[in-house]
Structures are given as C-alpha cells and as structure tokens.
Amino acid sequence: MKKTLLLTSLALLVSAQVSAQTWVLTNAEKGTDKGDWSISSQKLNLQGPNFSIEQKVLHGGKQEGSKIITLTSENGLTIVLSPTRGMNLLHAQGFGVRLGWDSPVKEVVNPAFINLESRNGLGWLEGFNEMMVRCGYEWTGHPTTADGQLYTLHGKAGNTPASRVEVEVSESAPYEIRIRGLIKESTFKKADLQTMTELRYVPGSNSFSLHDVLTNHADYPHDYQIIYHSNFGKPVLEDGARFIAPLANVSPFNDYAKGGMKTWNTYSAPTKGFDEMVFNLTPLADANQQTVAAVVNKAGDKGAAIGFNVSQLPVLTMWKNTDTEKQGYVTGIEPGTSYAYPVTIEREQKRVKQLAPGASTQFDLTYTLLHSSEQVAEVEKHIAAIQGDKSTQTSDTPIARE
Question: How far is CA 108 from each of CA 5, 66, 85, 129, 149, rounded to the nearest angstrom?
Fold first, then answer.
C-alpha cells in the first residue's frame, strides 16, 4: 500500500515502539518548564531523514508568553503547534504545499488575553487562526445560554494551556516522533475532563496523526462533545477547488446555507460579502468504520485529506468561508461527535455523548498533505470505493434551527 493511503489507520503509520527517549517540557504539577528548547536527529545520532524539534517562547503583543513547538523533517513536513493554545496545530507545510490559512488574527494569542464570554460568547474568534483547533470537550458549537450558564463558542479546550507537555522520539527506525500535551477542563462542582493529546509523525512522511484520549476524572458522569475544526486556505483552496467525501446525506446548517446547496461541494474565488455557509454531513465508512474527507485544488494536484473513525466521530461538518483574503478565505473539514448547533439543540437531538466516572474515550485522525495528481487520484478512488453504489441524499431543510 502506498504511503498516501495511510489515511484511515494509525496502525499503518507506525510500528510498535521498542524504546524511546522522552523530554518533559512542561510539568504544571512540579511547576517546571524548559522554555526555549531543541533537539535534533543529529544530536541523537539517528540515521534516516534528518529532523529537528524546537520549542520557542514568543514575545510581544497578545502572543506574549505563548509557546510554539516546530517539528521539521528533511524531505517531509514542517508542523507547528502551540502548547499554550490547547496543543492546536497552527500549520503544516511541505512538498510545496501549505496546510492552514491566513486569518486576520496574525499572532499566536495567549489565552490570558482572551475573554471567551465577550461579544455574547464569541470571544473565541479573537485567537482563531489555526489549521486545527479542538472544539470541546466539555461543550462545543455556537454560543447559547441555558441553565443560567453561557456556553461560549466552541468550548474551552482550544484556549487552555497544556498542563504537561512532553516529546518522545523512538530510538529505532522509523524514529517516530510523538508530542503529547495534557489539557485539563477542571471546575469545582462542574467538570473534571482531562484530555491527553498526542501528535504522531514519522520523519519524511507526508502524513501525521492525532491520538487523543479523553478521561472523566470526576465521581459523576459528564457530557462531552468534540469537533476537530480543520481549516485550509491557499494554495489548496481556490476558485474551482472541490470537497470530496463518501456521504450518506447532506443538508444546510441554516437558511442562508440553503442558497448554496446546488454548489455546496465546490468553491469560488474570494468573494466580498460572502457570509459563511455550513453544511451538515453524514459520512459513510468502510467495514472497519474508517472514512476520509478531503479538499483538493482545481487542477487536482494539491489537497488535504483527513482520515477518521465514524464510531468515534460520527458526524462531519463542512464550513465554507470564501470571503475576501483579508477577511479570511478558508474552508473547514470538521469531524466530530456533534454538529455546530448550540449544545441545547445537540442534546435535544441526542448527539451529546456522556462519559461514566473514570471512563475514557479516544479519537484518532490522520492528516495527509497531497502534493501530486497521483495522490489526489488515489484518495478519490478510495472515497469512491467507500461510497460504492450508495447514493448521497440531499435536503434543503436544516435538521435544526437556532
């Protein structure tokens, strides 16, 4: 099987590790942090593609004190993430292609400078510029007030600094790299949800994966939701770009999106006055419950693909925001347990899940940067195989109204 088909199974990405070296960069329990730090394959005397991993503390403006970790691989990808911002992925690039987008928010905003409750619960937008941001886990979706509480846009995880950060490098080929961060959503008398996030990468590869484990540390059951808000702009997004995925059905998120149903899976050039359109999708999967969704450029030689498991992440949202470039020209592929409706609606429609005391659940996703027509064609063939002879049902009626 070719490397670019490593979309739907983490097991295909890496072999079991025999031994590894680990560096703890942050440990809140001990009150320790390494600050600026780096390691490389040369320093470790490892063979194979050269790589480096660097943590840097940023200064100035609203990014004062924010940290970023940059993983750079020879003949592979450069991946940048932020432990300060929930281990969110800022961008990835390689092979002449960038995965990410150009937000009006240019800094890696420290959550200390963000009030999530501002703008009637839309304060989350003041830091939003990532390629992938975790929306959850205590709740997600559009803001709403219920039971005397303001549920802010897309929850708190993406604006929560990691309490523990560590880097692990396997000492045997293919020298897999793992970067882990512990995100705590702990509130007295409310919730004690903790998520161990993990990014996995094999140097030289055009794919990387996420393996996140969410655990309820409380003595009572608790609801959870998650949307993996994955965002792509130029050079993948352009006039004539396409969204592709095996789907059971498609419907508009709201009345505004109804007007875009005829062209919901194609994109236009940057268009002033274009408000965001959102579409609710139900993905189809193979016999192992694996599926893949992708956005590809007009020529069909660049793209971004996400493989995930529908037993973990049963729904898919497509966000189309083809506004002007300065405003933010971007599309989102968003596997999740919920759609982006407020938590009250998601509860009513029984998409909000619950964890028993002490119980855990996991989420596995694989991101692949596509950089040739052969790779794009391979993904399209894979999607067609999952779709089979099943037709995609479309509806002009939103499944809910805010």
Answer: 32, 7, 8, 8, 28
What's the CA gap between 161 and 149, in Å, rounded? Answer: 23
Amino acid identity of residue 318, one-letter, is M
Specify the pairing of strand 51-57 against strand 67-73.
antiparallel
Predicted confidence (pLDDT) per residue in 63-118, tens digit: 999 999 999 999 999 999 999 999 999 999 999 999 999 999 999 999 999 999 99
* Number of Cβ within a 10 Å radius of residue 348: 12
Distance CA(374)–CA(4), nearest Å, equals 9
Q: What are phi and psi for residue 382, nearest 5 degrees?
A: -65, -45
Q: What are the angstrom distances between the C-alpha of 327 and each of 48, 245, 270, 381?
A: 42, 27, 9, 35
In contact, 90 and 233? CB cutoff 8 Å? no
Q: Give SS3 for 330.
A: strand
Residues 6+ apart with CB under 8 A from 387: 246, 247, 284
Residues 6+ apart with CB under 8 A from 204: 48, 49, 73, 74, 75, 76, 174
Q: Which two tokens stand for residue 22?
A: 């680990």
Residues sharing a CB contact under 8 Å with residue 242, sequence separation 6 or more, in sequence order: 265, 266, 267, 295, 296, 298
What pTM, to 2 d.p., does this model score? Answer: 0.95
